[in-house]
Amino acid sequence: MLKEARLQAILDHLRERQVESTAALVDALGVSAATVRRDLDELVSSGLVTRVFGGAKLTISEAVDEPFDEVLPRNSTAKRSIARLVATQLQPGSTVFLEAGTTCWEVAMAAQEMELTVVTNSLRIAELLLPHPGIEQILLGGSVNREYLCTQGAAAVTEIGNLLIDVAVIGCSGVGERHVLRDTSQRELEVKRALRASSSRLILAADHGKFPGIGAYTALDLTEVDLLVTDRPLAPAWADPPTKVLHP
């Protein structure tokens, strides 16, 4: 079994059982305990899994959004590397949508000295860019997600439909081997669909831990993305994606 398939199988087991022992994972995958431990170490480093005595559990709940400020520090080096590359794709004077994710927050950090119109549903991104006079901001309305500090719902989706966006930057919780974008909640699904319809160019910003990542919900797949920006070359299971890829 290829490593990518093993990682996905481990996540699937943890999703079904909440907590799983290392011994049970060895039996389920038909590999050695050393291999399972290495795979768990990789999932832990990606922030997807937490070690418990004798096994592991999912770090991220698929039912409830984690607080934005808890997610922000995870994989920060990878996110900043991606953000710098995304910033090179933005043209001065353009209208850019930044989705309410932590990688998009890093994109805002990287682009804060540019002259842009930034549309966002992220309260944190709006707060970050407020002191910068070269950035004209449009903050979407809608209901407020208190955990992830963003606006969402029908009002936000309607406003996106009334905008002409040059570049939209989105994130996800994972990219499956069949190239579907995965999310752990329904919070952003309608926003993503609306962005695809209203944007001239759609950029997915996803670090290596998002391959395969986790998530039971999907709104788009990679065929609908114009550019994938990540922090390292893609693993073999994703080596021939149906879109352009940019990495350091």
From TrEMBL:
InterPro entries given in the database record: Carb_Metab_HTH_regulators (IPR050313), DeoR-like_C (IPR014036), DeoR_HTH (IPR001034), NagB/RpiA_transferase-like (IPR037171), Tscrpt_reg_HTH_DeoR_CS (IPR018356), WH-like_DNA-bd_sf (IPR036388), WH_DNA-bd_sf (IPR036390)
Keyword Transcription: yes
GO molecular function per UniProt: DNA binding; DNA-binding transcription factor activity
Pfam families recorded: DeoRC, HTH_DeoR
Membrane-crossing residue ranges in chain numbering: none
PROSITE patterns named among the record's database cross-references: HTH_DEOR_1, HTH_DEOR_2
Domain HTH deoR-type: residue ranges: 3-58
Keywords: DNA-binding, Repressor, Transcription, Transcription regulation
Function in brief: Repressor of the lactose catabolism operon. Galactose-6-phosphate is the inducer.
Protein name as it appears in the record: Lactose phosphotransferase system repressor
Organism: Arachnia propionica
Lineage of the organism: Bacteria, Bacillati, Actinomycetota, Actinomycetes, Propionibacteriales
